[in-house]
Amino acid sequence: MKKIVLFLCAMFVAVTMNAQEPVLAKFNYEMKSLYGLEQHGMTPMNLNLQLSYEFANRWSVLAAAERNHTQFDVDGVKWYTNGVSLGGGLAYAWHDGEHDRFDLRLQVLNTIGSPDWKHTTFDIGTNWYGKRSKSGMSPLIGIGFRYQKSHTAGIRDWMGIYGTIGVRF
Question: What is the pTM of this model?
Answer without folding.
Answer: 0.81
